[in-house]
Design goal:
Shape: globular
Structural class: mainly alpha
Helix content: over 70%
Length: 292
């Protein structure tokens, strides 16, 4: 007789209790604050809400937030793909050091990172006199904000691609090379199609982190209204000035961007799971032995 291994499952009461606790936690710590943002933003009606968003400083903060996120994205993609490729496909001395340094932005506080950039590029910093002599301004200007944002967001794409590339192995790349494909042909026709959804997933996470960054950007921006204030910094300034409608209206834009990011993230996860299921469906089933 075949031995059938049964999977122990919890009772229905335990499962419903765990689900209720999870949904309650999500509602009180995620859903309720999100609803309160929109409730406060529209408390005085749509007119004051749109007027607050139409303020020149608010519009400048929104466009600056989008611009900084788009400016760091190509650099993050280039660095992330190159790093993941090197770590997953090759063996070299210093590989463990590279992976350790990749986690540095996760370990260092964003405020500390901003202070480090001031120490390097500030007026009294290591390169400050040279930058001042050549009339190059990094700190309290757009370049410093881009550098700080890139430092904070640089690990996301690489960290998403490394396990994906390692799980895929090197068989397909080696087969392409054996058939005469060049390095670029192998990358564009073999490697990139295999990692496209993982790359898009990392891009979404990196972009969301860039738009919501506060600590490092706050240190290096100088808080110049209409020039170096991103949307998170603008929300803080309006709230400190007791402009609740303007602060929550700007915060609602960040909340909408977060919701769009969540929808995009869910779609990418669904496509990745769908492709995985399709791949598993075409693979031959594993042979199992029955024990009598």
């Amino acid at each position: 007789m075949n031995q059938i291994r049964t999977v122990n499952t919890e009772s229905r009461g335990v499962r419903w209790t765990l689900m209720a606790l999870a949904f309650a936690f999500l509602f009180f710590f995620l859903g309720l604050p999100l609803l309160s943002v929109f409730a406060e933003a529209f408390r005085q009606g749509f007119g004051p809400y749109w007027q607050a968003l139409a303020e020149p400083e608010t519009l400048a903060a929104i466009w600056l937030t989008v611009f900084v996120a788009l400016a760091v994205l190509p650099l993050n993609i280039l660095f992330g793909v190159a790093t993941a490729w090197a770590v997953a496909k090759f063996e070299f001395s210093g590989k463990s050091l590279l992976t350790t340094l990749l986690d540095l932005p996760f370990a260092v506080s964003p405020v500390v990172a901003g202070l480090l950039f001031i120490l390097i590029f500030g007026r009294q910093g290591w390169f400050g006199p040279w930058l001042a002599a050549h009339d190059i301004k990094i700190i309290f200007a757009l370049p410093g904000m881009i550098i700080a944002t890139m430092f904070i967001t640089v690990p996301y794409i690489a960290r998403e691609l490394i396990p994906l590339m390692q799980s895929q192995g090197k068989d397909e790349e080696e087969a392409a090379v054996s058939l005469g494909a060049s390095g670029w042909q192998m990358f564009w026709r073999v490697s990139l199609p295999n990692i496209k959804w993982g790359l898009l997933y990392g891009v979404i996470l990196s972009n969301a982190r860039a738009m919501g960054e506060f600590g490092a950007v706050s240190v290096v921006s100088g808080h110049i209204r209409g020039e170096t204030n991103t949307l998170p910094l603008h929300v803080e300034i309006l709230y400190n000035e007791y402009n609740s409608v303007g602060a929550f209206a700007a915060a609602s834009v960040l909340a909408l961007l977060a919701l769009v990011t969540l929808v995009a993230k869910t779609f990418v996860e669904w496509r990745m799971q769908k492709e995985t299921d399709m791949l598993n469906a075409v693979l031959p089933p594993e042979k199992t032995t029955a024990t009598n």
